[in-house]
Specification:
With 147 residues, this protein is mostly helical. The chain has two domains: 2-77, no CATH class; 103-146. The protein is 59% helix and 5% strand. The protein contains six helices and two strands; from the N terminus they run ααααββαα. The protein has helices spanning 2-12, 31-39, 43-56, 58-71, 106-131, 134-146, and strands at 85-88, 93-96. A two-stranded antiparallel ribbon has the order 1-2. The longest helix is centred in the C-terminal third of the chain and has 26 residues, at 106-131.
């Protein structure tokens, strides 16, 4: 009996994976919208897959959808989860991760990293030239006089 209660408790908590039906965005039972939220995919893509499965495997698709409606709990109104994010190097900030956004190729990312490192190296060289120059010593002496 406790296993039965454990199952319903896990179901109510989204199986610890933020796996719920999303009735707010859903059309029928909210299964495709909930799976879309979990997998970070647009729900229309999963609906298209579901319609294709319905055309090819009619009874299996219907039973699978009904089973998902039963096994997945309805999304709570106040769910405390953060969306999955990835770092966007061009914007220098995190953005929501999308399954269908293609990152730069490794060679492009390497080129960008090389450009950034070259820029840092140039700035460090400029700073070293200034610190080791007579101008730096002169500026330092003037700043002592002004204080």
């Amino acid at each position: 009996m406790s296993q039965f209660n454990d199952f319903w408790e896990k179901r109510r908590q989204g199986y610890g994976m933020n796996l719920y039906r999303n009735k707010k965005k859903g059309w029928l039972g909210g299964v495709c919208a909930g799976l879309g939220d979990h997998l970070n995919i647009e729900p229309w893509i999963l609906r298209l897959i579901a319609v294709g499965a319905l055309m090819m495997f009619t009874s299996l698709a219907i039973f699978a959808y009904l089973a998902a409606c039963i096994l997945l709990a309805k999304r709570p109104k106040r769910l405390k989860t953060r969306p999955q994010t990835e770092y966007d190097e061009t914007a220098h900030q995190d953005r929501p991760r999308s399954m269908f956004s293609y990152p730069d190729t490794p060679s492009e990312r390497l080129r960008t990293a090389r450009e950034r490192l070259d820029d840092v190296l140039n700035r460090v060289e400029t700073m070293e030239r200034y610190v080791t120059s007579k101008r730096y010593n002169l500026d330092r002496e003037f700043s002592k006089i002004q204080d």
